[in-house]
Predict the structure.
Amino acid sequence: MPELPSFLNTDNHLLWALICVSIAMIVTLEAVQSAIEGAWPHQRRPGTMLPSERTAQSFWGIVAIALITAGLLLIANLGILLWQDLSQTDTQVLGGILVGASWLLFMLVSIERFGIRRYITSIGLAAPLATLALLAVAIILLTLSAIEVWPSEQEFREALPILTAIMYIR
């Protein structure tokens, strides 16, 4: 039976970060899916909204797309770091922090149970634009980091036997 790679040890912090980011992306995709099937809680009653709140409605959809993009870039960075057994760079850490802060703000606006949604949406365009700015910086940082650590084609080809062995272990 093939041996598991050393990066799959449970004491690896990058592995736990990858698991947490993946779970957060699933939660985010569920929030976006519910928004597509029906309006987000802050978009259900446009008649009771202030004009500044109505203006910000469409920007939260753009924030969702940028958040999914940034989350996938973060997952790619973490996956490559684990695979290549590299340590994270300051650029990746900063990008991850920006994605995390943006995700938290997005979820606070998307979930009405916390009671914070009304306060955040009352400031109008400021919250979605600030979140978009954070995500734009995060996307740039994570893209540059991914380019820096991206393995060669030969390394991808060499990894295929390991990937197939991991799939057969289950």
User: Anything to note?
Assistant: The helical segments are 13-37, 51-84, 90-110, 117-121, 126-149, 153-169. The two ends are 11 Å apart (CA to CA).
